[in-house]
Amino acid sequence: MRIAIIGFGAVGQGLARVLADTGFTVTAVADSRSACINKDGLDLPEVLARKEESGLCGSAGIGIADILSSGAFDILVEVSPTNAETGEPALSTIRSALAMGKHVVTSNKGPIACAYHELKALADINGVMLGYEATVAGAVPIVSGLRHGLAGNTVRSLHGILNGTCNYILTRMRDEGLTYPQALQEARDLGYAEADPTYDVKGIDAAIKLVILANTLLGMDIRLSDVDITGIDSITLEALSLAESEGATIRLIGEILPERNQVRVSPRVIPLDHPLVVDGTLNAISVCCDLAGPVTFIGKGAGPYPTASAILADLNFIRDSYDRGA
Amino acid sequence: MRIAIIGFGAVGQGLARVLADTGFTVTAVADSRSACINKDGLDLPEVLARKEESGLCGSAGIGIADILSSGAFDILVEVSPTNAETGEPALSTIRSALAMGKHVVTSNKGPIACAYHELKALADINGVMLGYEATVAGAVPIVSGLRHGLAGNTVRSLHGILNGTCNYILTRMRDEGLTYPQALQEARDLGYAEADPTYDVKGIDAAIKLVILANTLLGMDIRLSDVDITGIDSITLEALSLAESEGATIRLIGEILPERNQVRVSPRVIPLDHPLVVDGTLNAISVCCDLAGPVTFIGKGAGPYPTASAILADLNFIRDSYDRGA
């Protein structure tokens, strides 16, 4: 199957590196300022080298519109940066591709959080698939886990560590006695936190992931503004010590209670032997199901290769489904 | 879709109870001494009540052969007890169903451990699917996780707690200072261990599950006799205390190293904060993948409803695949 990659930062480039031996052919790549198209398949090492040298993946004269109008792809992979407010410009790109009868796979949280029900309906009408495993918890196969592995269950509750930056900061505060500003600076130095960490430490990133899980897998229809959000930026070492004296610690927990239509992100005291107490930048999600009981998934929540793992899972699922149908 | 249930013990009865509102129609049920068939769908509450009262699900005059020859089902669900040596009689039943072009879903470890490659080839030739999520780790969606959620990854290693009885015994020895015989007796009293616990405590049950994972998902072709097995029956409180003094404990760990073609089950010392240190009868599996990194799955390894959860996942996957293909 032929793939167009929209967005060529760390995730897009990581994906291009791992697609080499998979039988998928990349026919188009776009970054924010350029694009390249070859209906017979691009020379990916050459595209990666050009990006490395010039900052552009292709020619500045062409862009996403040219890739769409070429039609030279079966699956559009949208991996540009997230805009959580409007989902744009990714949302429009994804809409166009689905309307053309092309499958879409994305790691972009914006369009899925803002417009999943509309996009899913558009995909269904056009007989194509919409994969978004990479939007939540990186390599952790939570979307496939809930959709396939636990199909037939009713999820009573979901609790998760969905932001690796916050979990890293809280882990370091507990393990090394760093203050919040010290741990945040360390996370910045290691590249785990952005220069402006608001999005992570205020709990907004975790909340967007909860919106995606709630709307796409738990039968809900909520917006980011429906989530009750408290961040980690006022957690003190004293609060952590108090938790520790009770055999517990503090972590930023996302929670969905579908039956109460309740979704929130907040620092919570949890026992040290709880499966959600994971170290460093790991993510973890526990669901409580009517038949299966409690099921926990733990893994890397971010990074080019973990994200590529989730994208590849969606790509393989689309290929396998159509192989079976054909 | 129409379902025939072969085997009507705790798992078969649990499944019959949860299938009520799922859109699947049960047209046949067999236990070891009787069967019932209704091409328009059985009255499941009636069948369950008859089994409860008489020990038989149907008429003693008919059996599995009659169900097969009726052809009145789309999916055969084989949930009879495991025979690990030959896989029989389930293996023959599954072979017949696949050869008839019927899908098969099973919780029976025997046929999958003994003959997966043969059965998968037979399913492929006949254009049908073979689901076996329920054979390993109960409700934990490890088969779907490796096949779909982590598709495209190479698994470097797999480590797991795959026998809830052993994990319960070791948990109780650690937490309460019970000796091995005391903890085993408690597990028997609670129904977690059989009167003859050999199969569990000698590590054989865990080894069979490793054979299934190795052969069906990790590209290997091994037999039970290829697994290096040590059980938990000679673990002492002194050994546990020694581990504890190092911040660790002892658990029965199954291990697969695909690149070394190495599969073993043995008691291992692991740090108390390791994700595989789960309590009581829980199961846990960690895989180390080239792209995703380490991914851990934790959940209930046994019980009628956790097993029904895994069977339902396979049933839904078959239905969804054919809906997409149609």
UniProtKB/TrEMBL annotation, chains A, B:
**Annotated GO MF terms:** homoserine dehydrogenase activity
**Keywords attached to this entry:** NADP, Oxidoreductase
Where is L-homoserine annotated to bind? 194
Q: Which domain of life is it from?
A: Archaea
- What region holds the Glutamate/phenylalanine/leucine/valine/L-tryptophan dehydrogenase C-terminal domain? 2-55
| Homoserine dehydrogenase catalytic domain residues | 141-315
Give the Enzyme Commission number: 1.1.1.3
| Record bears the keyword Nucleotidyltransferase | no
Q: Which GO terms describe its biological process?
A: threonine biosynthetic process
Which enzyme class, named as a word? oxidoreductase
Active site (UniProt): 209
At which positions is NADP(+) bound? 7-12
Q: Which InterPro entries match?
A: Glu/Leu/Phe/Val/Trp_DH_C (IPR006096), HDH_cat (IPR001342), HDH_CS (IPR019811), HDH_short (IPR022697), NAD(P)-bd_dom_sf (IPR036291)
Q: Where does NADPH bind?
A: 109
The family classification in the record reads: Belongs to the homoserine dehydrogenase family.
PANTHER family for this protein: HOMOSERINE DEHYDROGENASE
Q: What is this protein called?
A: homoserine dehydrogenase
Q: What is the lineage of its organism?
A: Archaea, Methanobacteriati, Methanobacteriota, Stenosarchaea group, Methanomicrobia
